[in-house]
Amino acid sequence: MTWFCTKAFDFQLAGEGWVDQTVNIYDQPGDGPLNRLAITRQPYAPEQDLEATFREMKGGDYQEREVLRSETIHVGPLDAQDVSVVARNVQGADYHRVVSIHHFETTLNFQWVGPAVGREVVDARVERTLETIKFRKK
């Protein structure tokens, strides 16, 4: 059985073989530029390397991606890969900050997106969010 929980509800899926591929997207309302947090859950893949993934990406919404930094950080007691990327297209440039955390057999990817010109605002939002993450024991 697989258990899923949110602030509003929880449920269990009967049977075996379910794979959690949850995507949660949070947008900050307003008339300004897009500010978004997307969280994905997927099965743990030890070979995953976010920096390499961004460097190899082609096409999509962006013509160009530049990895600004990639490092290992700690989120609570866990190691995480933290990557910052500026992605450009004809409309302008967006700043992506992605933090990938392995928690038991699950990989959690947190991706914040905002305008590249305001990346310090995005980084501050990331730091405040990471400080509040608490992991439950299985």
Textual characterization of the structure:
- By secondary structure, the chain is of the alpha+beta class.
- It contains two helices and eight strands; from the N terminus they run E-E-E-E-H-E-E-E-E-H.
- The strands form two sheets. The chain has a six-stranded antiparallel beta sheet with strand order 3-4-8-7-6-5, sandwiched between helices. A two-stranded antiparallel sheet has the order 1-2.
- It is globular, with a radius of gyration of 16 Å.
- It starts with a strand and ends in a 6-residue tail after the last helix.
- The mean pLDDT is 89.
What topology does this entry show?
Blueprint: E1 2-5, E2 10-13, E3 23-27, E4 36-43, H1 50-56, E5 64-75, E6 78-89, E7 92-103, E8 106-115, H2 119-132
Antiparallel strand pairs: 1-2, 3-4, 4-8, 5-6, 6-7, 7-8
In short:
The chain is α+β, with helices and mostly antiparallel strands. The chain is built from two helices and eight strands.
Main sheet: strands, sense, barrel: 6 strands, antiparallel
Helix content: 10-25%
Radius of gyration: 16 Å
Write down the overall mean pLDDT. Answer: 89
Indicate the low-confidence ranges by residue numbers. Answer: none
| Tertiary shape | globular
* Total of helices: 2
- The ordered string of helix (H) and strand (E) elements is EEEEHEEEEH
Query: What is the CA–CA distance across the termini?
Result: 14 Å
**Helix vs. strand class:** alpha+beta
**Which sequence of strands runs across the widest sheet?**
3-4-8-7-6-5
Q: Tally of extended strands? A: 8
Strand content: over 45%
